[in-house]
Amino acid sequence: MRYITPAIQNAGWDINKQVLREYSFTDGRVIVRGKLVNRAKPKRADYILQYKSNIPLAIIEAKKDTLPIGAGMQQALEYAEILDIPFVYSSNGKGFIEHDRNSGREKEIALEDFPSPEELWGRFSKQKEFTREQEQLYLQDYFYQINYKTPRYYQRVAINRAVEAIAKGQKRILLVMATGTGKTFTAFQIIHRLWKAGKKKRILFLADRNILVDQTITGDFSPFGDKMIKIQRGNVSHAHEIYLALYQSMTGPEEWQKTFEEYSPDFFDLVVIDECHRGSARANSAWRVVLEYFDQATHLGLTATPKEDADVSTQGYFGEPIYTYSLKQGIEDGFLAPYKVVRMGLDKDLMGFRPIKGQTDKYGRVMEDREYYVNDFDRELILEKRHELVAKEITRYLKEELQDRFAKTIVFCQDIEHAENMRQALVNENADLVKQNYKYVMRITGDNPEAKIQLDNFIEPSETYPVIATTSKLMTTGVDAQTCKLIVLDMTINSMSEFKQIIGRGTRLRPDYGKYYFTILDFRGATRLFADPDFDGYPIPDDEDGDNYPGNDVNGGNRIPGNDEGGDEEGRVKYYVDDVEVNLINKRVQYLDANGKLVSESYVDYTKKNIRKQYATLDDFIRRWTEEEKKQVIYDELLEQGIILDELRKEVGKEDIDDFDLICHIVFDAKPLTKSERINNVKKRNYFTKYGEQARKVLEILLDKYKNSNITEIEDIKILKLDEFKQIGMPGRIFKLFGGKKKYLEAIKELEAEIYKGEVS
Which residue of 83, 484, 575, 597 has the lowest C-beta tally within 10 Å? Predict the structure, then answer.
């Protein structure tokens, strides 16, 4: 890099303000195996050149001068596509290869001919066909103040694409970003740039839940201060610039409820619709009238889960997304928490239940003689012992698997009555903690004002209580439960978008609270939707709280008036049964592989399959292990594939062999040598006699360290700072015993070769 940096600087780039060096733009995927958590390496660019902050124009991948100039081009192109950077360079310090992503052409340029910031901006602006006005809008600064968060790369891409689209006059725009990736912050930066540039002077932000609006005002939009107001019935202002509103406060069936008509159709320049897959995306929605009324404004839709079915078409209204950042990509980048899935198979769920002829429920009513299946449970048939079993398994998982009874947990239920039944069952299973604080388990549903107040406490990371929340629809969206570690699915889900919204409650990472991943405990087979991305079902309801939709009234289930008396107009009854046993008959644990797919194979099988992809034979692996100067490189490669050898060792119970032998044994069925056997073999060969007494002592200590750790520890010269070596001397003195640092490192390499002589057979 000693030739590349001066070349950039001589071209006019400000090294301190315009150049990001060795810039990590991802955090590195969180890899979970059992209870062990590691991070893969983050993606890192050698150089990113910005015309101004958050307006990157070029990326440079630097390689050794012994490699061709273009050796780094393919990696640079991969990163440029991710980062949405137009000009790509590879260099070995002798020159540059330039790739223009707009034309697809490449050329070689000399070090002294590297383009200036003005030259690259001019080329970029010409390619975009910007007018002077559009150029100035695109160059409008991001909002920034000390201690305020800066955009991640994907947020920057979304912001710049949205500003560009609006600058060029596009009227309807869609951004798709996974739950937990900062859609509201992204919207804030878009709005702020347009507002400060004077392009959009009055902006309306629409949402369908109070919590979404209130969190936005106190959170990401707080820098707008007194320029911002929340529209409410009876509190209509025309004197502000940033307006936030709940759909329900803007419209209603009565004329006096049509608050939006208090504003002229051309009052707003920009309307931002949060969670736009919900009500307003549906052509016959009562809320669509708000968007139609303000149709002269630009409409920007934000969603994690676009919907496409007979009733709802997000893309039909907004068009194709200008940018998509998926859950899979967020997990791969290490910005979102990965998950484990535990599917619980209950006998009555899998095989159904049919009452015997004349069997009565707990209230003495004769049950209808038919088969009841999992979708009927808690809607038409209440199996109380099923509630007890589910509560037992949730409690057991908190105690034994997570080993944390205070891990925030959301239990999604069929309806409000089911949520109450589960609350009672969980209270009884956790009576010791409920006795200490009754808020340990709470039902948080739309009909329960007290529990809704506790929702804020549940989502606040620093608040201990509530710990377990039972709910139906209220918490499916818009609830930023950052520390939630366990999501329990005990409800029927047929909508991909609803499923993704529910899972989104757990995708936040909070390492400061020990939250690196979350678990989905699935009692109803809902996670089958992971494998069927095209499946979609009934639309998510339009009401504010989401609990009051047909078939989910506060009395529970599919009841209509009259059911409380034991029947409805069709003679349908909801039965309550307290004497039918329910048992857990199987459990399957699944996890994400390196490609983001859910797999249920054993960890041993997973390791075998992935290592054999890289090393076809035992000889291939031994050759690589022997030739690799630093074994840590191999460890890092395995980690990238989600292979953690310590976790593999726990599964197979081989504590007396090292990692080399573990791989040879598990993957290639070779007979391993123990560490003790390898050490004894080294000593038998009189290998140490070629060194002086003090040098031999160093090697003996290193061998002892190998016995109690792994080979990478003795490769690291930092080991010489341990107490065991102090009696011999500081690292510099130890190097002299071998004839210098280079000779010491050669001795370590030779020691490793001796350790692995007579490999596995």
Answer: 597
The H or E element that residue 714 is part of is helix 711-715
| Residue 430: pLDDT band with limits 50, 70, 90 | very high
- In sequence order, which residues have a C-beta less than 8 Å from that of residue 586 and are 6 or more positions away? 345
- Whether the pLDDT of residue 539 is over 50: the answer is no
Tokens 């329960």 belong to residue: 448
| Tokens linked to 231 | 């529209």
Q: What is the pTM of this model?
A: 0.77
Cα dihedral 701/707/709/713 (nearest 10): 40
Name residues whose C-beta falls within 8 Å of residue 696's C-beta, 6 or more positions apart in sequence. 688, 689
394-428 burial, b at 16+ Cβ within 10 Å, e below that, comes to bbebbeebbeeeebbbbbbbbbbbbbbbbbbbbbe
pLDDT tens for each residue of 738-757: 899 999 988 988 888 888 88
Q: E-strand spans in 110-150?
A: none
Q: CA 694, CA 338: separation in Å to the nearest integer?
A: 50
Asked if 360 contacts 566 with a C-beta cutoff of 8 angstroms, the reply is no
User: What's the average model confidence in pLDDT over 286-299?
Assistant: 88
Expressed in angstroms, the distance from the first to the final Cα of the chain is: 45
What's phi and psi for 283, nearest 5 deg? -60, -35
Whether the upstream peptide bond of residue 355 has omega within 30° of 0, thus cis, is no
Give the per-residue pLDDT at 459: 85
Asked whether the beta carbons of 135 and 52 are under 8 A apart, the reply is no
Give CA–CA dist 371/365, Å, rounded: 17
d(CA 380, CA 218): 42
Whose CA is closest to 461, among 505, 503, 510? 510
Tell me how far apart the alpha carbons of residues 546 and 474 are, in angstroms, rounded to a whole number: 5
Distance CA 605, CA 666 (A): 9
**159-206: pLDDT as tens digits:** 999 999 999 999 999 999 988 899 999 999 999 999 999 999 999 999
Residues in the chain: 761
E-strand ranges in 27-186 read: 30-33, 36-39, 44-52, 55-62, 87-91, 96-100, 105-109, 172-177
Supply the pLDDT for residue 593.
63
